[in-house]
DNA sequence: TCGAATGAAAT
DNA sequence: ATTTCATTCGA
């Protein structure tokens, strides 16, 4: 599509020329790596890729594309969206409020209002947002070291046709051009979506935060892209490409299903995640008829995760996801135990590395053998349903919420249960998806979009049902804990117990079949896949027993043993552990666990736990997973402890990266696996943290602002009076959501209107953008004067009169009052100063900032309340007087 | 796809 | 000093 043009790339553009002939179908790896940055892991990935490459997969084209992809990397960086600034965060957090108040208002109008609010917002409050934005930015930069806000000119933006689009797109497009980007963008658009995945509390809110994850996204996208490219279909190149690595992966592994299917491709275009999902789904579709894909999943494992995220998309995926999750759990367990282990037999524990391939198959074989037959049918059905459901999942989000509660539980249990039910599938996938998302780096929003898209695509089905639930993952901490538990349990040998516990929960859900379903699903797929995989991928399979259909299993197997173990376990007694886990809500972890559980259940577990554990253990050890896990755990603890963004960020970034990287490479070797885990955790943590922070940001009640605004339509008023000012103060903050504050503000709200000095101006800062505004309003002059003198010149009136609030003032006045005498007094006094005599003098003394403050004070004065000045502290509450502030300044 | 706002970064 | 673009979503 758009393709060619991409600014940057175009060079390659088009075609492919492939710059690099790397192969690797999996370019994505590289890309990811780049994105990820730092980590050199790429290399590993490459290796893996090579392996994959072995598989025929795509043609050279892919490679070429890869080259492009590399570009993508760049693009990827670009791709990353800028972190939101304080104002945007504010908008994000308050837009909904504005909308509620003014349903009719369109976003633009809402934006204006928000701007007004922002203008009025107390400095303190603003500072909160500013700080958050800063943290966000810092984290973002860590994740995207070389990130440039402006792509710069390079991009010939204009060049291409519609330049216009270009600009905006630029980045995105660029990426698109590359391949990946596009998809993401698309996704972005879609934001509409409810955000399936994230059941997280305020996914929406998080969106911004999600940015942080961008890096991961990039990575993902990159992968996708790369893979897509790899695929090659010339014609569709883009699309196909999109399928991307995963897809390719799957294909490869599976043998490919072949991508080619044009149809599939199309869908893929969408965002990265989306693509992902599509990919997976596509694959699934492709496969759907036949289960092929699994293999691929297994291969990546990570992919699996991804897929899981995507999973929604396909039934198969879900399974896979589950497996992956299980896988992780298994790892966890193993690690913890240390275990026991052994089972040499299995072998391939390594699987994870190869992921898909090798080990998994073996595993699959075993598991599959056991389960396949029985499950297959079920699985298939379930799979289909799942797929459908998935689409709908979005809708389900609602449910998700419900599930969320469970999530923790669900995570563990759900897998099983879920698997049975569509919901389960959904759930699983969702959770995973979330994690995956994170991993990928996709933002929630994006994800949502993607999902939406998917829905659209598939939405037809909707099953609706319960799907959703899984979305979420939850806090990292909890995850960690859960993990810990798991580990302990494992060590103790509780596995079964946990399982049991889990199961019970499942029970809640109806469905009985569920267990089987999971397995079943797997089995069918497995079968198909197995074939394909073998063919395609192959090799790994080695084991193969074959018949086994094992994709899923294999996957699981790869992941691991755990699955097998689980098999044994099926039974399950509940154990406390489970409960515990749930509590913790280890989203990711849980998911894993749950997956494991599911698997187990599903699997039926023919194998003994031991075997499973052993396998896992080996695998973990070999890969270093244990270490990583531990590290993660520690990390998680730490981060949790710290709590704040900064720390978190750090973790976040690192983890994400790692994760992403690992994810990318995922299969590759050991390291990555670890990364995954960490990654997951990290992501989860980060997300959580950010969410928390974001949520913690104060929310002001609209009312306050509204009054002001409404009263004064900012501009409208402009007016000459000038006066006014604003009110800033009112902040009525709700701190965090709490509206409780409303009452508070109400009290506070009152503004006092002052008259205020024209000059007021607010202006504190006049920042670039502000300047713009000022210009518009003419305020600038004033401001400047302020610096030096004031010249009210003409413009003054306008100024920001926005605030002006006369009416508001009135209102406020009524309300206000609370401030009381003191406040008002102070305010007044200040005003007086500022205005009157002071003005001139003031100008001299005060810096712009001071003036701004004064102005603010005045406003406050009206509004009242708050204004907390610096001194205040936070409290907004009251008053504090503006005056004080002014004084302070002086 | 544009736009309305603010802000940070880049040019 | 100006340009880009981040979020949001109705037109």
From TrEMBL:
Residues 805-817 have a biased composition (Polar residues). It is found in: Nucleus. SUPFAM superfamilies: HMG-box. GO terms for molecular function: DNA-binding transcription factor activity, RNA polymerase II-specific; RNA polymerase II transcription regulatory region sequence-specific DNA binding. GO terms for cellular component: nucleus. Residues 80-148 form the HMG box domain. Residues 1-18, 495-505, 533-549 have a biased composition (Basic and acidic residues). Residues 1-25, 37-80, 442-592, 632-652, 700-742, 755-837, 860-890 are annotated as: Disordered. Residues 39-52, 63-75 have a biased composition (Acidic residues). The keyword Transcription applies. PROSITE patterns: HMG_BOX_2 (PS50118). Residues 80-148 bind DNA. Residues 446-456, 770-781 have a biased composition (Basic residues). This is HMG box transcription factor BBX. Its main location: nucleus. Pfam families: DUF2028, HMG_box.
